[in-house]
Design goal:
329 residues; alpha/beta; Rossmann fold; 2 domains; seven-stranded mixed sheet; 13 helices; 12 strands; globular; Transketo_C/PFOR_II; PDH/Transketolase; Transketolase_C; Transketolase; thiamine pyrophosphate
Length: 329
């Protein structure tokens, strides 16, 4: 595997604008736009960094820019959904899943409307912009909202496939949580083959000693960690739990029974995130195993360039492998 995900140049704005290949929602919606006139898209002065402009330039009459008014944008999306449209709302996750949380809860989740919320640049991807631009609480916020589906795709293929599913067959509000779009892909696009389905986890690697359950960009880093652990004699299963709510409980319980140890990995506070969701499944099922959550340990990130921060917080492949070894003893 290459090491481009955390390469320093991908955080240099002018060097990396053309590198956001994994932000595929806009191009997917543009492809679906003619057959699905109910699709509309909304942004808040960030249509190019989120790549929602890929849809906007093809369908300018169905694209709306709200400026720096994210809360108004969410409420307007709810209004459009109430008329039968399927609005796709995209901005940075700190401004969507965190800042606009009350509007999402009251205007979108409560009436159970078909609004698709895409929070990009989540976690600490905006590291040097400061805590106001970080989003390490958005999983816990949105998964606590009744009716809300919460998805953290591993890459652009996964995002595209589940965005398309959300247009064609899925009912109810969805919060998609994605990074900067400049990461290494996990999935290879295959013609007429869907590899990611909402609510169904993907076992990307089998193993017998440990299961790593990850979401978002940490899926690829967990695969790197698993490779390093294998070289040290630790057979490691890796599960891409892209849908955090509703969770694939069967995948979790099989992992607990078959490997006896689960490590969850997320670019999020361990309080209320992916790890907490997995723990809830285990406790309510009565299935016991060795268990650890890894992410941000109820703390705010330091301010700095993310490629240093991922190493510092052991959220890169090497760091995850070291956490796993310590966990297993």
């Amino acid at each position: 595997m290459s090491t481009t995900t955390f390469h320093k140049d991908t955080w240099e704005l002018y060097k990396s604008l053309e590198m956001s290949k994994q932000l595929t929602a806009g191009e997917t919606l543009a492809r679906l736009g003619n057959d699905h006139p109910e699709i509309v898209a909304m942004s808040s002065d960030l249509s190019k960094p989120t790549r929602l402009w890929d849809f906007g330039k093809e369908f300018p009459d169905r694209f709306f820019n709200f400026g720096l008014a994210e809360k108004n944008m969410v409420t307007a999306a709810a209004g459009l959904a109430s008329t039968g449209k399927i609005p796709f709302v995209s901005t940075y996750a700190s401004f969507l899943g965190v800042l606009a949380a009350e509007n999402i809860r009251t205007a979108v989740a409560y009436p159970n409307l078909n609004v698709r919320l895409i929070g990009t640049h989540t976690g600490i991807a905006m590291g040097f912009y400061g805590s106001s631009h970080h989003a390490t609480e958005d999983i816990s916020i949105t998964r606590a909202m009744a009716n809300m589906t919460v998805i953290s795709p591993a890459d652009g293929v996964a995002l595209s496939e589940m965005v398309e599913e959300s247009v064609k067959t899925y009912e109810g509000p969805i919060y998609f949580r994605v990074s900067r779009g400049r990461e290494e892909p996990v999935y290879e696009r295959k013609e007429n083959v869907v590899q990611n389905k909402i609510g169904k986890a993907n076992v990307l690697k089998q193993g017998t000693d440990l299961t790593i359950i990850a979401c978002g960009i940490e899926v690829n880093e967990s695969l790197k960690a698993a490779q390093q652990l294998e070289e040290q004699g630790i057979s490691t299963r890796v599960i891409d739990m892209h849908t955090i709510k509703p969770m694939d409980t069967e995948a979790v319980l099989n992992a607990a029974k078959e490997t006896g140890a689960i490590l969850t990995v997320e670019e999020h506070n361990v309080q209320g995130g992916l790890g907490s969701a997995v723990a809830e499944v285990l406790m309510e099922s009565g299935v016991s195993c060795k268990f650890k959550r890894h992410g941000f340990y109820d703390e705010y990130s330091l301010i700095g360039k993310p490629y240093y921060l991922y190493q510092h917080y052991k959220l890169d492949g090497k760091g995850i492998a070291s956490v796993a070894k310590e966990f297993l003893g």
